[in-house]
Amino acid sequence: MQKPWIASWLLVALAVSAQAGDITGKVTLESTPGARKVGETRGSAGYEKGDVPAPSESEIEDVVIYLEGDKLACTPQTRMSTKNTIVQKNKEFLPHVLPVPKGSKVYFRNQDPFPHHVYSVSQPGSFEIVKHGSTVRSQLFDGAGEVEIFCGIHTKMNAYIMVVDSDYFCSPSKAGSYRLTGVPAGQYSLWIWHPRLPKPSKKTITVPATGSVNLDLKL
Fold it and tell me: Running DSSP on this structure, what letter comes out for residue 195?
């Protein structure tokens, strides 16, 4: 016979889990991004604009969509996975943009047959990995914001880590579609960020207790 308190707990858990909806839509990039950034010299704090090879990802895939609001969970990713790893291959950082929750570790894996010098002077995420060879290295990012990454040896290498303050973030598909799932019911700020547009955009959105809300985004 099932105990009454267990049945009550299950009912509460089911009720709480039901109070969540999805945000879906399509992103259209109408603005023209500026030139990708490149480093100047080994370990320098500066950079200059210049022509560099196009990233492997499309510009749409470099968009990060994330929510901010009271009581949103933020669960750091500390174990190595594809969700928190940047690969160095063919003198390129892959992916070009990596979103992670605040407090996460990002792992750097060099698949080139030569070392790199990975660094950032961004605040709050400055760090340096000198002579990064085949050994996987990790770096903790405990402050929200944009972290620009360069290689002090191969100055045309550039990437971004976008550290967000919630578990609700995503990047669009190549076709521009996106989905944030299981968002607790309520009103939030939805941010749309791209590394090479002048500034992020913000919209206010109300998530229903069940079902989904559609929001198409133009940048």
Answer: T
